[in-house]
Amino acid sequence: MDPQLPPDSPGPLLQEHEPPRRRIGRRATLIGSLVALLVTGGVGWLAWELTHPDTAAVAEGALPAGGARPGGGGGRAGGGGRRGAATTVGIAVAERADIPIVIDALGTVVPQATVRVRPQVSGVLRQLLYKEGQMVRKGEPLAIIDPRQFEMALQQALGQRMRDQAQLEAARVTLQRFRTLLQQDSIARQEVDTQAALVKQLEAAVVISQANEGTARLNLGYTRIVAPIAGRVGLRTVDVGNVVSNSDTNGVAVITQISPIDVEFAIPQDQAPALQRNAGAFMEVKALDRTRTNVLDIGVFGSLDNQVDTQTGTVRAKARFNNARLALFPSQFVNVQLNVRTIRDAVVVPVAALRHGDAGEYVFVLKDDRTVSLRPVTRGQATVDKVQIATGLQVGERVITEGADRLREGSRVVLPGDAPGAPGERGGAGGGRRRGTDRGAPAASAPAAPASNALPEVAAGARRMGAGGEAGDRRRRDAQVPAATQ
Questions:
Q1: Please, what is the Cα angle at 25 between 20 and 31, to 5 degrees?
Q2: Do you find a cis peptide bond into 260, omega within 30 degrees of 0?
Q3: Where would you tag: which of 6, 53, 93, 297 has the fewest CB atoms within 10 A of its CB?
Q4: What angle do CA 206, 207, 213 make, to 5 degrees?
Q5: What is the 3-state secondary structure (H, E, C) of 327-394?
Q6: What is the rounded CA–CA span in Å between residue 347 and residue 412?
Q7: pLDDT at 327
Q8: Model confidence, pTM
C-alpha cells in the first residue's frame, strides 16, 4: 500500500479506469446554432405564410388581376389594392343621347261629365230602352213614360187656343165695321174704342193659349227620356212600372262620359313655373297602371290650377286622353309621367359609373395604359339607368362601372376580354396559385413545374425573412472558418 495515499482514497487501479470528460468543440456549437436559426426562420416563415397568404402569392405574381380579398378588397390592401396588383373592372363608353325631363305623379281618372238622368214629368215608367253598361250617343232614347195624360193635356190646350183665335177674328171683323160706321158718322167713337180694346184682350188670350199648347207639347216630349250626353250607362236604378218624377234621387239612369277623359294629378310647387312657361307647348303625358309596366293611354297636358295647396305644397294639374281603347276608367288611380321637355345630345354614362366622395361627384376614366384616373364631374339630369354628365367628361371616353370600390388614382386594371399576360396583368394568367383553389394544388390547365421551382413558397419566404438574408450569409461564413482550420 502506498504510504502517500490517504486511507479512504481509492486505489491506483480505480483512478486509471475513470472516463475523461469530453469538451464540446467550437465547430459543433456553430453548427447547432445554425440549425436553430434555420428552424426558427422556417417556423417564422410558416407562420407568416399561414396568416398572410395573399402576400406570398402577390410576390410570386401568382394571384390573378384584382387579387384583393373577397368582399370588396378589404384587409391591408384598403380601397386601392396593393401597388402593382391589377383589378378586373367593367367599363362603359360615354355617349350622346336625348334625356327627357319627366315628372312622375299619382293621378285619378276624372270623367269630363257625369249625368244622373231624371224624368222631367211625373208618370208611370212604361219602357226602358237601354242595357246596363251600354255605350249611348247623345239624344239616344233611354226610357218612356206613359204619355196618355200628356196627350190629353195637349189636346185641351190646342182647343183653347183655337177658340181664342176664333173670338179674336170675330172681334177684329166687328172693329173694322165700327170704324167704317164712324167715318159715316153713324156710330159713336166710344163704341169703336171699346171694340178695339176687346180685340187686344183676345190677342193676349191667344198668346196664352199658344203658350199652354207649347207646354203641353213639351211635357208630352218629356215622356220620352233621351241621353243628354254620350257615354256609358251605369247600372239600372229603376224598374218598369214604377211611378217616376223629377224629385227622384236615383233617377232613371247614370251616364258617364269616358271618351275623351281627364286625369287629375298633383305636381310639386317647384315644378309649377316650368309648366307655366311651357303652357303653350305640346307636353306628352303617359298614364300607366299601378305596376308602372303597361301604358294605358297617351294624352296631352291640359291645364294647371291657379293656387298651391298649402297642406301638401302641390299644385293640381289636368291632362286629357282620348281613351280610344277604353283603358281608363272613372275614379281609377294611375301613375302619370309628364314629359316637360327633352335635353338634346347630352353626354350620358351608366348610373353605376358615377361615384360620390367628400369632394363631390367623380368618375374613374380608363387610360390607354390600363390605368385609371379620377375625374371630378358635374351631374345633370338622370333617367332610370343613365345620368347626364354636364361637365368633366367627353364623348368616347371610357369610364369604370364595376369594381371601382377597389381603385384609386393610377390603379392598374384588367378588362374582362384581355388575354393572359396582357398589359396591366402581373405574372400572366396561369402562373402561381389562384384565388378559390386549394393551397398547394396546381391549376388544371397549368403545366407541371420544374424540380427547381417545386417550392416557390420557400424562396418567397426566404426573401421576406429578416434574418435569412445578409445575416444568414455572415453566420455561414463564420461557421465555415473553424471547420477549415481544424
A1: 140
A2: yes
A3: 6
A4: 90
A5: CCCCCCEEEEEEEEEEEEEEEEEEHHHCEEECCEEEEEEECCCCEEEEEECEEEEECCCEEEEEECCC
A6: 26
A7: 93
A8: 0.56
Please give the full DSSP string across 275-295, using - where no structure is assigned.
HHHTTTS--EEEEE-TTS-SE
Q: Name which of 310, 299, 311, 307 is nearest 276 in CA terms.
A: 307
Q: To which residue does cell 446554432 refer? A: 33
Summarize pLDDT for 458-477 with one digit per residue, the tens.
334 434 444 444 444 444 44
CA distance 38 to 240: 113
Closest CA to 246 of 227, 226, 222, 221: 222
Task: Kindly state the cell numbers that stand for 172.
Answer: 177684329
> In this structure, are residues 320 and 262 in contact, taking their beta carbons and an 8 Å threshold?
yes
Residue type at 125 in one-letter notation: L
Handedness of CA 113, 110, 235, 118 (dihedral sign): negative
Q: What is the residue type of 79? A: G
What CATH number is given for 117-254 in this structure?
2.40.50.100
Number of alpha carbons in the 13 Å side-chain half-sphere of residue 386? 17
Other Cβ atoms within 10 Å of 228 Cβ, number: 13
The three grid cell numbers given for residue 231, joined into one nine-digit string: 257615354
CB 149 within 8 A of CB 259: no
Where helices occur in 24-76 by DSSP H, the ranges are 26-51, 53-59
Phi, psi angle pair for 69, to nearest 5°: -70, 155
Q: How confident is the model at residue 316 (pLDDT cuts 50, 70, 90)?
A: very high
